[in-house]
Amino acid sequence: MHDVFISYSTKDQNQAETVRSVLENNGISCWMAPRDIPTGSNYTKEIPIAIRDCQVFVLILSQNSQNSHWVLKELDSAVNHAKVILPFMLENCQLNEEFNFLLTGAQRYEAYKKKSDSLEALITRIRAITNPQTESSVQNPPPQQEKSPVYHRSVRCPACNSANWEELPKKTGKYTVGEKAVGILPLVLGVVFMFAGVFIMAVVTTFMGSLKDSVFFSIMSFGMIGGAVFGFIFGNTKARNRIRRQRIRNGIVPHPLRCKACQKEFLVKRDQIV
After folding, report:
1. pLDDT at 79
2. CA distances from 39 to 43, 46, 135 (A)
3. Which of 89, 154, 164, 227 is 20 to 30 Å from the Cα of 74, by its Cα?
């Protein structure tokens, strides 16, 4: 027996897979076609049994699901079996007459507003239904757990579907004029100090005796070029890395990750990993 039956349109399969992964990563067992249909069996035989045996019916609700005859049949079966129905709304769509009638009184989770909050609320509600004695502990988690939501490891690599990834502090998005100015500032300071160093060196060399003009200008040129290169590489890199980390923390740009399994790099939105 499983906790949740997930009903969805095949056009929303990626979204449904994300919800399933989040639930299962939080210890909630799920049944989802076609993954859980045994080899040699078929939809018409296994789906009614799965709906009958589940405790919660999660409907991935969108305009696509309303246009699906399979989803409508599954929803009708869930109503007939008096299952708890939790619509997870991918978009703010107008319900047609059939879905509006079948979902009367059902608590809806508006994922199109903020998916992370809707997932947390969905997990809490399912746990309250499937394991009532832990409802109070789920509603009032320890303060230290609030900083790290339970579903953040559900992000999966689009290439190999692995959830084993590492964060990368690499550049994403375009810099604003102000951010570019901050990146150039260390270079300007580097050039200023370079000239100061050249001036001091010139003063010191005067006490060491006269030098040929060609030698003197060669030393000055080498110092200027070396200082400029060093200032650009060191100062600009440090400043831009700081800007980059700040932009990622504030959710301004997608967050870069690297899959440890296949070494592919990909981006996710901040609310998927926080």
Report:
1. 92
2. 11, 11, 37
3. 154
Containing 5, the helix (H) or strand (E) segment is strand 4-7
Q: What is the pLDDT of residues 199-254, one digit of tens each?
A: 766 666 666 556 566 666 666 666 666 666 666 666 666 666 666 666 555 555 56
H-type alpha helices, 211-254: 213-230, 237-249
What 45-50 contacts at long range (C-beta under 8 Å, 24+ apart), as own/partner pairs, is 47/74, 47/77, 48/77, 50/2, 50/5
Beta strands 109-110; 56-61: pairing state: unpaired
- Structure token pair of residue 251: 């959710």
pLDDT of residue 185: 65
Report how far residue 50's alpha carbon sits from residue 74's, in angstroms, rounded to the nearest whole number: 10
Residues in the chain, total: 274
Q: Structure tokens of 200? A: 């001091």
Q: Which residue has the tokens 């005796």?
A: 209
Structural tokens at position 186: 């260390």
Cα–Cα distances in Å, from 151 out to 28, 36, 208, 228?
12, 22, 69, 47
Q: Alpha carbon of 178 to those of 170, 185, 243: distances in Å?
A: 19, 11, 10
Q: Which residues, 6+ apart, have CB-to-CB distance to 200 below 8 Å? A: none
Q: Report angle CA 143, 151, 86 to the nearest 5 degrees.
A: 105
SS3 sequence of 95-126: CCHHHHHHCCCCCCEECCCCHHHHHHHHHHHH
Contact 69, 96 (CB under 8 A): no
64 phi/psi in degrees, rounded to 5: -65, -45
